[in-house]
């Protein structure tokens, strides 16, 4: 079903996930119990056990992945990260200047932390006795993670607002419409430019043993995805609005927001209308997030090769992924969080089933590097501050 | 009796695979046969990958070569027969423990949510610098003004009278030993959308003109002011802020993942928590007001009547579970049935 212009061998290896929900539930709930009993200390061991389970049940061509991080490493990193997070929260709460300084410090540290985090994650992942590695440089990290996004923001704001401000006096209509168009255009291309920079920095930095990952990414593809995502949002927003008017709900909603007196009979309908509208917007948010994620992952993988001999393939579908995340969400909510273990397994199953590797793995003899994964501080920091780089 | 397991070998630090076969002796002796590498030893001389669920276990020999079985179950069964299953693995498979863990987790989560978080928030709120709440109070007032609140349109004479009554009330409370971390103040505002009253972080009580008119009897006004002073006395605004912060951080830590589900769940948890906690706060403030009203006038009726009037003029009354304030009906009921706490009697 997949065709590639490159002359790769026609061999296809699919990823398989062998974990199962009932077994993992036991591991998961015992992890939580021991974490509670040890006042959080066990969480480091829990993380290692969980990751070992997910890596170890992911199989490619008869071999499983391995997670190599040690609990003590994680624990030390976690303690430092939590202390930093508390200090950061308190400092930034004290006064506005401290808050700005804290924000700047975090922004400045972000590229550094990202590099350390990716390097750690790569080096603790092993497949067939060979570990992964991340060799992206710090300077390129600062360029792609900090400088380019800032430049893009500046460009978007300066061009659209500058244009509007210039023409506002003489041609207000042209100024507003032109400003909006310019904003949309620069936002789409700014997004594409930043994402391409970030994704190619990350992918091209990865190594399997000494073999490099490579990806040649095209900005136009990213711009298309962004534009379609934007159009999807706008379209569903307008559709929702038309539905409201079509159902004669407009007056009810207006009354609800302006606080006019409504007779008790329409009260219930208005509450339901509000609730339905809320759910609708919620659903739209999920659809767009799923759309962007599937399209970007499929595209990025289609461009990613290992040592120019192996080709990554992602076959995610919007419907499949959307069904997965929505059922997982419902599963988690209606079991008051206990279904979380099952949801995680389903997620891993889907992701594995949508991923494959083309080319003859057996032909590639790879030697492991001798680099150690030093400490987990950056890894835990990135988790604690929730600043993961999401390229897919 | 010996068994054989087919599989493959991977060289140390190298990804090349070699077909291999393992002969497993009944006494725990292992013979590894392969074109690339041969080895024999006792089971305790090899390093086994950690036992976890039903994951197939690998054997790393002292030479660094790793054997991977193509029949993971068969090898696992043999290993289990010849070595002790780690305690952790037995725990993770123990149905009784799993049930127990589920109950303990649910109870802990409930306990944290209902007792620990509010307690911790109260403690933190009372230890925050006074400047912070003063700052927040001023911000709150500016925000109200931005939302369309204007200077009161009541006559100056009436405003002065109200201010005097407010001061009297505070003095009366102080005489009774009720303490406030922030000296309470009162501000009057005009708002187009009806009767309302708030307490801000710095102890400011805001009454809208409509509220003053609605509470047309002296004791009704006293009741609503007392309710707001209840919020001030218990530092509810700051407590609320801290609670939200604690909840968002814990929720994000508990559900953290990559598919966007966690953000959704976090916001649900935080909104849900906010609703629950503000209901508790409303009840506490009602209780504070009821206690004072009862001890001064032997009746909580004025506040109940005022709530009834508010109930009638409120345009939309969301069902109880969705509204920030507990359903007014319930609160009116509670007020009417108020019983003062038993006073220690002197003998
Ligand atoms: Zn209140």
TrEMBL record, chain A:
Signal peptide limits: none
Pfam families registered for this protein in UniProt: DUF898 (PF05987)
The organism's place on the tree of life at top rank: Bacteria
Residue stretches spanning the membrane: 25-45, 74-91, 97-115, 174-204, 225-250, 270-292, 312-334
InterPro entries assigned to the protein according to its UniProt record, in alphabetical order: DUF898
UniProt entry keywords in alphabetical sequence: Membrane, Transmembrane, Transmembrane helix
Protein name: DUF898 domain-containing protein
Provenance organism: Shewanella hanedai
Automatic annotation (TrEMBL), chain B:
Pfam family, one: Peptidase_M48
Transmembrane residue ranges: 95-116
RNA-binding as UniProt keyword: no
GO BP annotations, alphabetical order: proteolysis involved in protein catabolic process
Cellular component, GO, one term: membrane
InterPro entries assigned: DUF7092, Mito/Outer_Membr_Metalloprot, Peptidase_M48
Residue ranges annotated for the Peptidase M48 domain, each copy included: 159-338
DUF7092 domain residues: 5-81
Keywords: Hydrolase, Membrane, Metal-binding, Metalloprotease, Protease, Transmembrane, Transmembrane helix, Zinc
GO molecular function: metal ion binding; metalloendopeptidase activity
Cofactor remark: Binds 1 zinc ion per subunit.
Cofactor: Zn(2+)
PANTHER family cross-referenced by the UniProt entry: METALLOENDOPEPTIDASE OMA1, METALLOENDOPEPTIDASE OMA1, MITOCHONDRIAL
Protein family per UniProt: Belongs to the peptidase M48 family.
Name of the protein this chain belongs to: M48 family metallopeptidase
């Amino acid at each position: 079903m997949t065709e590639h212009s490159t002359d790769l061998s026609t061999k296809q290896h699919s990823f398989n996930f062998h974990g199962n929900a009932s077994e993992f539930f036991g591991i998961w709930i015992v992890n939580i119990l021991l974490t509670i009993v040890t006042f959080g200390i066990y969480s480091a061991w829990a993380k290692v056990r969980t990751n070992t389970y997910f890596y170890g049940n992911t199989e490619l061509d008869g071999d499983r992945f391995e997670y190599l991080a040690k609990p003590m490493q994680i624990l030390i990193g976690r303690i430092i990260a939590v202390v930093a997070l508390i200090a950061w929260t308190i400092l930034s709460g004290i006064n506005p200047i401290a808050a700005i300084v804290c924000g700047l410090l975090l922004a400045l540290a972000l590229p550094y932390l990202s590099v350390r985090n990716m390097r750690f994650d790569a080096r603790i992942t092993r497949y067939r006795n060979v570990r992964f590695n991340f060799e992206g440089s710090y300077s390129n990290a600062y360029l792609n993670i900090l400088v380019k996004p800032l430049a893009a923001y500046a460009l978007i704001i300066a061009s659209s607002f500058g244009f509007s401000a210039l023409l506002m006096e003489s041609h207000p209509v042209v100024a507003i419409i032109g400003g909006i168009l310019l904003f949309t255009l620069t936002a789409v291309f700014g997004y594409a430019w930043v994402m391409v920079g970030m994704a190619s920095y990350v992918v091209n930095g990865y190594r399997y043993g000494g073999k490099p990952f490579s990806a040649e990414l095209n900005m136009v593809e990213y711009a298309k995805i962004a534009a379609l995502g934007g159009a999807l949002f706008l379209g569903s927003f307008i559709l929702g609005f038309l539905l409201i008017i079509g159902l004669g709900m407009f007056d009810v909603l207006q009354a609800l927001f302006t606080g006019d007196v409504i007779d008790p009979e329409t009260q219930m309908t208005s509450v339901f209308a509000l609730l339905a509208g809320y759910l609708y917007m919620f659903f739209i948010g999920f659809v767009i997030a799923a759309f962007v994620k599937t399209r970007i992952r499929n595209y990025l993988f289609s461009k990613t090769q290992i040592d120019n001999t192996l080709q990554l393939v992602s076959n995610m579908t919007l419907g499949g992924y959307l069904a997965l995340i929505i059922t997982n969400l419902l599963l988690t909510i209606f079991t008051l969080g206990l279904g979380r273990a099952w949801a995680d397994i389903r997620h891993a199953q889907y992701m594995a089933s949508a991923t494959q590797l083309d080319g003859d793995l057996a032909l590639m003899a790879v030697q492991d590097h001798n680099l150690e994964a030093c400490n987990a501080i950056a890894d835990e920091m990135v988790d604690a501050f929730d600043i993961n780089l999401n390229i897919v | 009796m010996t068994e054989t397991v087919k599989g493959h070998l991977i060289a140390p630090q190298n990804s090349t695979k070699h077909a291999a076969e393992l002969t497993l002796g009944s006494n725990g002796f292992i013979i590894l046969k392969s074109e690339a590498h041969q080895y024999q030893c006792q089971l305790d001389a090899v390093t086994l990958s950690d036992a976890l669920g039903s994951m197939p276990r690998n054997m790393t020999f002292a030479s660094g070569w790793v054997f991977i079985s193509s029949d993971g179950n068969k090898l696992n069964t043999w290993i289990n027969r010849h070595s002790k299953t780690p305690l952790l693995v037995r725990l993770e498979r123990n149905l009784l423990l799993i049930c127990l863990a589920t109950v303990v987790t649910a109870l802990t989560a409930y306990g944290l949510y209902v007792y620990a978080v509010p307690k911790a928030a109260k403690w933190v709120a009372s230890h925050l610098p006074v400047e912070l709440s003063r700052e927040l109070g001023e911000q709150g007032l500016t925000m109200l003004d931005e939302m369309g609140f204007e200077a009161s349109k009541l006559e100056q004479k009436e405003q002065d009278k109200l201010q005097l009554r407010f001061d009297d009330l505070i003095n009366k409370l102080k005489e009774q030993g009720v303490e406030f971390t922030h000296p309470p103040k009162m501000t009057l505002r005009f708002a187009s959308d009806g009767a309302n009253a708030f307490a801000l972080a710095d102890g400011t009580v805001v009454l809208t003109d409509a509220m003053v008119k609605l509470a047309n009897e002296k004791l009704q006004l006293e009741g609503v002011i007392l309710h707001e002073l209840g919020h001030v006395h218990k530092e509810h605004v700051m407590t609320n802020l801290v609670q939200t912060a604690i909840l968002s951080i814990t929720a994000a830590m508990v559900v953290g993942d990559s598919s966007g589900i966690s953000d959704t769940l976090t916001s649900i948890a935080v909104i849900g928590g906010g609703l629950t906690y503000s209901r508790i706060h409303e009840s506490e403030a009602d209780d504070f007001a009821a206690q004072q009203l009862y001890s001064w006038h032997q009746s909580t009726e004025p506040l109940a009547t005022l709530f009834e009037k508010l109930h009638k003029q409120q345009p939309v009354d969301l069902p109880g579970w969705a509204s920030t304030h507990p359903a007014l009906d319930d609160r009116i009921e509670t007020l009417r049935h108020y019983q003062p706490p038993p006073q220690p009697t002197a003998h």
